[in-house]
Design a protein that fits this description.
Number of strands: 20
Number of helices: 13
Helix content: 25-40%
Largest sheet: 8 strands, mixed
Radius of gyration: 23 Å
Distance between the termini: 49 Å
Strand order of the largest sheet: 8-9-10-11-14-15-16-17
Length: 432
């Protein structure tokens, strides 16, 4: 009887997840649209006051000052601000809805070296978590598997679609690799001392990764009799068609990971996390390694670190001349909606506001390899952008009026906004 009750409870939870589906995706753009009079933040450091932005068939066809000719449906945004759609990299958005309900959790699979696991086919385009990104201007994400040493293959999607096929922007863009730590925290529950201590298995774990890369490369140069899906999925990292996103924080780990990748013939490497990357900026510049910085709203990891190191890390790397984006590691998927505000707090550390904007737009698009179409407001690129009442990097003023994905005027309604309206109506009526 208890098993039946548990099954019914799980079923009820699943129904609650899907009973309110995401807003119906917008129809394709049917006529030219002009946004006139707003301040355009291009995403490459440039700002155009009293701007005119024209887009049709999903593409920006003109952008400039007030002298630029208008066309089609004219939307007056005087006093408002226009931004490129913000991009959330290396997140499991759409792969998990409720941690406690296993049927809604597809963010990881069994196995340690599983580059052949493709996150895209498990992506839920009707996720309530995904739709909650849009009212803050986060319109694109890199959907990434989690767990294991090699977690799998990510894909990049836009956040207004019927299904994963419609959502896909870039399919199977990269492999995600969790480099082992040379130090680990003591397992006090097993009698070990608290605090950091050397990881005795580090060399073994590193060598296992190296051997896997060697075997994968050899597999691609041979004519194997039996198909190995894991080795086949790795071939893109050797021919340059896929990037390798290496998750590492320590100075030693970063150097070992980058050196190993380069020696294995992997050219497109992205560092994710990079807590101690500021210590080896010349090494990263020499090897042309961009960095997706971990969660900035955090405490220092070690006692002798600056108290504000996590907050100022993006600024240190930018000033060192690296290509930097914000990844937001360590935050829940729901908190990813606050991506623009994490960029805003870097402004508080002294980084120029337009440079901080690039951390979640133009820079991230370059790192992910989608900058030909997304990340900045430029002629020929996708009309994926939004209009805010004020500064998008400030949670007090980032109030969206319009958002467009590939020129489609998308809904900004979510489950949260529906609840807000419902209960605001209740309490407003109760005061009468």
């Amino acid at each position: 009887m208890k098993k039946i009750q548990n099954s019914l409870l799980a079923f009820a939870l699943i129904l609650s997840v899907f009973s309110f589906a995401q807003q119906t995706p917008a129809l394709p753009q049917s006529e030219p649209i002009t946004l006139q009079g707003g301040t355009a933040h291009i995403g490459n450091g440039t700002v155009i006051e009293n701007s005119v932005i024209v887009f049709e068939n999903g593409k920006i066809t003109a952008i400039g000052d007030a002298s630029t000719p208008t066309k089609g449906n004219l939307i007056n945004i005087q006093g408002k601000h226009v931004y490129p759609g913000m991009i959330a990299p290396a997140k499991s958005l759409g792969l998990i809805e409720i941690n406690a309900v296993r049927a809604t959790n597809d963010q990881d699979e069994l196995g340690n070296m599983i580059p052949n696991v493709r996150s895209l086919i498990a992506y839920n385009a009707e996720s309530k978590v995904v739709e909650s990104m849009r009212p803050n201007g986060v319109l694109i994400g890199q959907i990434t598997p989690q767990g294991g040493r090699i977690s799998g293959t990510s894909s990049i999607v836009q956040f207004d679609a019927w299904n994963w096929e419609d959502a896909a922007i870039k399919v199977d863009d990269g492999i995600h690799l969790n480099w082992p730590n040379s130090f680990r925290r003591g397992r006090w529950w097993e009698g070990e001392p608290r605090g950091w201590q050397p990881n005795k298995d580090y060399n073994k774990q590193r060598d296992e990764l190296i051997q896997f890369m060697v075997n994968s490369k050899a597999y691609g140069k041979s004519t194997p009799k039996a198909k190995n899906e894991s080795f086949e999925a790795m071939q893109g990292v050797f021919d340059g068609s896929k990037k390798v996103y290496i998750y590492a924080d320590g100075e030693k780990e970063i150097i070992d990971a980058v050196t190993t990748a380069k020696e294995s013939g992997i050219t497109n490497v992205v560092l994710v996390g990079g807590y101690e990357a500021y210590k080896i900026v010349p090494f990263l510049k020499k090897n042309n390694i961009p960095v997706l910085v971990q969660h900035t709203h955090n405490l220092p990891e070690r006692e002798d670190d600056d108290y504000d190191l996590p907050y100022k890390l993006p600024k240190l790397l930018v000033e060192g001349g690296l290509l930097v984006g914000l990844q937001n590691e360590g935050t829940s998927n729901f908190q990813t909606r606050n991506l623009p505000f994490y960029a805003g707090q870097v402004v508080g550390q002294g980084l120029d506001k337009e440079t901080a904007l690039q951390l979640v737009t133009g820079n991230t698009a370059k790192i992910l390899g989608i900058d030909a179409d997304y990340g900045t407001l430029e002629v020929g690129k996708s009309a994926t952008l939004f209009v805010s009442e004020g500064d998008a990097l400030d949670m007090r003023t980032n109030k969206l009026e319009h958002a467009f994905i590939d020129g489609r005027d998308i809904s900004l309604e979510t489950h949260q906004t529906e609840l807000w309206k419902r209960y605001m109506g209740k309490y407003n009526n109760s005061k009468k």
